[in-house]
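Question: Hello, beginner here. Any chance you could explain the protein record under this note? Any guidance would be welcome.
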Amino acid sequence: MPSRRNLNTLVTRVWSLAAPAYDLPLLQDWIYRPAQDEVIAELRAHGSRRIADIACGTGILAARIAAELEPDKVWGIDMSEGMLAQARTRSAAVHWVYGPAEELPFGDAELDAVVTTSAFHFFDQPAALREFHRVLAPGGRVAIATFSPPQPAVLNRLSARLPGPAHNPSPARLRELLRDAGLRVTDQHRVERPWWTRTIWDLITFGTKP
């Protein structure tokens, strides 16, 4: 199992216990929904029909994708049994699957889009992005929403030199990781959100498989 996943086994168990609280409306609307809205807009603009939400949590985004876009097939992938149990009660239109981002249960070029929001810092990032590239068909889209507060350039440089996956990659480092995985970065910007939540400093990065 990839190193980052080994470090986050305890975190996965905690999220299983926290699954009910995760669905609190204020938490979802103020923190998570702005990035999810941008992901859905991207998928709609590109007509993606086979979509996987990686580290889907309690399934709010995957269920929205199924209901609002009506694609051919939607999967929600997560390593927390507690989160998946909650997700299964949310939508029968989504295929809920247990598994890590670094070992996705899809064949080569099987998907049109892979998305992940507020979970990329838990992944072995190079390994996960290689999997994203593998399972995407040519022209397939990737959308990654991350928490990315500004930090001094010296810390960004230090983070880039540390062995193993970064925990919270800088915007430049994230672009580099996508390119190293064979993905082309098409856009990267701060998530548009209400002014009273702008201190969250989340970033959204879109890419495509050539």
